[in-house]
Amino acid sequence: MNIRVHQGYFRELDQAVAEIAAQQLYPVEMLVPPVSNESHWHSFSTRIYILEGELTITDHVLKQAFTAGPGALVEVPQRVLHSEFSAQGYKIIAGMTADPAGLSGPIDLDPSLL
Fold first, then answer.
1. What is the pLDDT of residues 13-63, one digit of tens each?
2. What superfamily does domain 4-98 belong to in CATH?
3. Closest by CA position to 84, among listed 46, 47, 29, 35
4. pLDDT of 105 above 90
5. 75: which of 44, 64, 90, 112 lies 20 to 30 Å off by Cα?
6. What is the CB neighbour count within 10 angstroms for residue 71?
7. Own/partner pairs, 68-72, CB within 8 angstroms, 24+ separation
8. Confidence of residue 1 (pLDDT cuts 50, 70, 90)
């Protein structure tokens, strides 16, 4: 599986919250500061709903970058190498397949561990 971006996917926060609940995902709302990180992967899948700002996410398997703004849904499957860039930061609500309270240690995992 690869990263997928759906532009104009939702209009209201309530729509994203309802979809996260219906899919029985763990909701996380956060304000992400400006970021530019190295290639990494996660042990869980995430559905990222962009509320404010802009995120550019690069799928290192496809060697393709996607830019997502408000209203976009970014689907990041577990174990997919990717990196993120945002010059100004962004605000999201995300649905995760893992309970964030149960995660210990770094969530951005080194490609050599894949």
1. 999 999 999 999 999 999 999 999 999 999 999 999 999 999 999 999 999
2. Jelly Rolls (2.60.120.10)
3. 35
4. no
5. 112
6. 17
7. 68/5, 68/7, 69/7, 71/7, 71/8, 71/9, 71/10, 71/11, 72/5, 72/6, 72/7, 72/8, 72/9
8. confident
